[in-house]
Amino acid sequence: MHNKVCLLGDAQSPHVIKWAKYFHDSGHDVTVLSLRKGNVLGISVFDLNPPKILSKFGYLLSSFKVRRLVRQIRPDILHASHASSYGFLGAFSGFHPLVISVWGSDVLTFPKKSIFHKLLLTWSLSKADLITATSKFLARNTRSLSPKVLKKIEVVPFGVDLEVFNPSRLKIRKTERDTLKIGFFKHLKPKYGPEYLVRAFKKVSDKFGNVELFLAGNGELKSKLKDLTESFGISPKVHFLGFVNNVPKIMSSMDITVMPSVDDSETFGVAAVESQALEVPVVASRIGGVPEVVKDGETGILVKACDEEELFAAITRLLSDEDIRLRMGRAGRKFVRESYNWKENASKMGRFYKKLMISYNIQ
Predict the structure, then answer these.
(1) How far, in Å, CA of 46 to CA of 28, rounded?
(2) Which of 266, 248, 250 is nearest to 336 (CA)?
(3) Do residues 172 and 321 share a domain?
(4) What's the pLDDT tens digit per position in 308-340?
(5) Residue 72 sits in a domain of what CATH number?
(6) Three-state SS for 37?
(7) In this structure, are 193 and 270 located in the same domain?
(8) Residues 194, 306: one domain?
(9) Using an 8 Å Cβ cutoff, are 295 and 269 in contact?
(10) How many domains is the chain partitioned into structurally?
(11) What are the start-end ranges of the E strands in 173-219?
(12) What residue numbers bound the domain in which 327 lies?
């Protein structure tokens, strides 16, 4: 059965693009309504183009534009990604069935700005026929906003395409080289803790002469981190990769991936799941939804956030024992295959779509 699916979301977001392409490739008629210009191959993208001046007023104007476009498109289902922005647009449209997916900051940060922000978010979510969250941690925090109202919450992870993140296909031979590689795959922002990693790496570098650190991502801390590596005398061993296109290939070449996030805004941990899919063990902070995606002692090691000593100890343990890395790597791939297979996660969302459409007598 082919249906019209309308996605309200950022057309430049890789997650929105993945959803759009999945349902398009499944034979559905997909349209994306976005506040930023984007290009999703073979899919209609409407740029809502809010005025740059008076952004809040422009956003309000976009809400009327969304209402009009949804009435023109007449989708079978409307799915908004990120509750504090597109979720409001979806709720304001008055369309049903409506799915709203919460991502993290929209639930953990936005409602703390003021009572008005919390009421607005709760109102938007209350209009949804279904709310989805990427982790149990995020689902609990969403429900806590208004336990009596927000009951329709299901966990649907982002998941990983196991064919794309396939170590056998990439054929990286780590055992034939002398250098040990540590990878970081997040924005260079304070909340992701790259400074703690660089500080821990200084001690790792002192212990292991053959180790290098690769930071994939950009952000406001880049200049500070470069200065830090210079002051530590480790700059030749630290590589700032910036934005990378071929994440699977670079990530697969790492011996371990480190995710030292410092607060609960880390509600899922995509980089951790991707690394484990590539049989690369993970060292990550024990915060937010991360303990759901990294099995401590089995697929990686969880550490206390903001603790460079504990981070150093965990990295040292993995770099010191290749057998542990290989064992955790194999366990990680198996864990992701069982719980975070993208196709199964997307299929789960499709079943929710179908159930909602049936409840509204949509054939």
Answers:
(1) 17
(2) 248
(3) yes
(4) 999 999 999 999 999 999 999 999 999 999 999
(5) 3.40.50.2000
(6) coil
(7) yes
(8) yes
(9) no
(10) 2
(11) 180-185, 211-216
(12) 167-339
